[in-house]
Sequence to fold (282 residues):
Amino acid sequence: MKYHLIISCPDRMGIVAAVSSFVASHHGLILEADQYVDGEGKNFFMRYEIDLAASKLAYETFHKKFEGIASEFNMNWSLVDAERKKKVVVFVSKHGHCLEDLLYRWQSGELACDIQLVISNHNDLKERVEWYGIPFLHIPLHEGGKAEHFKMIGDKVSSLNPDLLILARYMQILPKDLCDQYESKIINIHHSFLPSFVGAKPYHQAYDKGVKLIGATAHFVTQELDQGPIIAQDVIEVSHRESLEDYVKLGKDIEKKVLISAVKQYLDDRILIQGHKTIVFK
Fold:
């Protein structure tokens, strides 16, 4: 009976003592503890991993009893069942490297989640996905038919009620209603070190600028293109000797690494959002 207790609230004395005492008084064990106070000292963030195996508190009872402390400290909080695998839907277009990495890690047990479906506007990766035993849904995008395309996607995703949507090089801009419905539940991998080179063909933009570092960024999706809160980033050095094709080849490894890092942090409830920033407890 392991849970993640996630808390954000105005900072003041006594928060850690109150939460820790509550857990201990109900025979719970604190297996991992992370706290952070923002730079201005106004906001407090906490992630506890707790074991309630020896406690007499059921999930519902914990909620009811903890509300007193939550109200006292004006907390936004959640208690997440750490043993329940989160439901995931993956979106992809034609580039399969990020998807393949996700599926391999899922199959090997490294990625603890339930991948319910892979959705694509192309059929190129159908056989590969189904080889893993995962359903594949091809919804073609016809010129002028974006509204109907995304309505079909929205209806299908709603029926699955996923915890997370992953855009694994899905080369389409999601509509406002889908972004709003799954706010802070959509992770995108963008093949540049944001905020540099937003939008299409970032490797081409980087090559034209003669940069010495290229990278990748995993971020939450918002209505504004490539502007959502950043979760994870990494870079690799390049020089005048590398061609545009070299940029793309080198970048693929960074994209896979960054995306899997962000997804793992999300599945483990390690990401908290503060305005336009994230707090990531590693």
In short: The domain at 2-81 is CATH 3.30.70.260 (Alpha-Beta Plaits). The chain has two domains: 2-81, 86-280.
